[in-house]
Amino acid sequence: MTEYKIYGLRIIGTEDIKYIGRTKFTLSNRWSKHKTNARIDKENNKYNYRTNWINKHKDEIEIFLIEGNIKTKEESCQKEIL
What we know:
Layout: E1 4-11, E2 17-23, H1 27-43, H2 49-57, E3 61-70, H3 73-81
Antiparallel strand pairs: 1-2, 1-3
């Protein structure tokens, strides 16, 4: 059975969360995907807050678990926006 996680992105050593997301993959997998997407967006001149922030700070960012073991996609969607 798939379990979902709510995670955050922040600069290492700070408490200021810049992004909250959800995933059914490992956190390291999700972080790799964020970096890949930010690089591709930059190459295609698609800029947004998250893309700019990740490209600027990618070596300083950590991904961390906010809540794990969420059983359904619907529940994870609700928790992501809270």
